[in-house]
């Protein structure tokens, strides 16, 4: 998928538009499975929250992946995409017991991360297999908002609460078939990940009927040329060896599970926008585009970096620009970034737009959400239409308001 392909997509489907390269998704999936070839039983559950389009879920289903879900709606999307319930794991946080019970009826793997719900669910449904999410108290992740395994995190059951956890399991007679952790996103030091894994192995020894151990994910992808990323190959070699060793100690072969999202789809995505205005101020040159944080919130929310390329004139003289959106408040994609000279009407491409970009999009300022396009077998396939005005008003129930004469007079006086 080259610049001419991307420009053709904007001509056919308009801008802004999200584009996903299916071949990159496939290659990332195969890279991950290849890294853990020494493991007898490997399961990759794609994290639906990263990018939940049905066509993407169907692609992962064809590759043999399962799904990692965090809401009943994500479970329902997976089922709609044709994924078998047994290939879906549900890992919510802070949801009601009623939602967990509804999901359990659908036949998916339940993963519980707090003692209160564990005790209630186990008392009512002791025969339903349950995975337990452990908080290993390990700080990992590239931003405090995406570090979820530390001691102050709302996620998981503390390793210091294992005795209490065991009492609940014994008193209810629950069937615990899996142990899970997730330390955070953008993991750089695999030694930290391996250290957390040892905590998970030690915890697993408390349970005699496990079928799998889920190590979460959070693998870092490169955001710019020369950027560092999680060394999947080294992690695969070291963790596979340790996992196989643990299985011998445990007495049976378990399934090693992961739930990557960003690693699989981030680099596959491009977000294409058009430059509306070049605005020169006393200190800055702004490239103002036909989008904003309503479509791509990560730079404003996480401070995340997305490389930006002028694909209309890629070989032009580089200049410094601040790329900003059209939302009516501070709305910055990049500050003082070197980009090939930009003219009004040029198309800019944002890299790493596959994960947590469209899935976090909104209708703020009553703007439409963009279409999504899947590049597959050398062709562009529309997989989500651009929203229209009817999409903004769908579900709204206008009330006919008739103001009395007294109210109208009072309003005029004030």
UniProtKB/TrEMBL annotation:
Residues 18-354 form the Orn/DAP/Arg decarboxylase 2 C-terminal domain. Pyridoxal 5'-phosphate binds at residues 218, 356. It comes from the Bacteria. Residues 24-266 form the Orn/DAP/Arg decarboxylase 2 N-terminal domain. Keywords: Amino-acid biosynthesis, Decarboxylase, Lyase, Lysine biosynthesis, Pyridoxal phosphate. Its cofactor is pyridoxal 5'-phosphate. Belongs to the Orn/Lys/Arg decarboxylase class-II family. LysA subfamily. Substrate binds at residues 298, 302, 329, 356. GO terms for molecular function: diaminopimelate decarboxylase activity; pyridoxal phosphate binding. One of its GO terms (biological process) is lysine biosynthetic process via diaminopimelate. Its EC number is 4.1.1.20. The active site is at 328 (proton donor). Gene3D superfamilies: Alanine racemase, Lyase, Ornithine Decarboxylase, Chain A, domain 1. It catalyses: meso-2,6-diaminopimelate + H(+) = L-lysine + CO2. Pathway: Amino-acid biosynthesis; L-lysine biosynthesis via DAP pathway; L-lysine from DL-2,6-diaminopimelate: step 1/1. This is Diaminopimelate decarboxylase. InterPro entries: Ala_racemase/Decarboxylase_C, DAP_deCOOHase_LysA, De-COase2_C, De-COase2_N, Orn/DAP/Arg_de-COase, PLP-binding_barrel. The keyword Lyase applies. Specifically catalyzes the decarboxylation of meso-diaminopimelate (meso-DAP) to L-lysine.
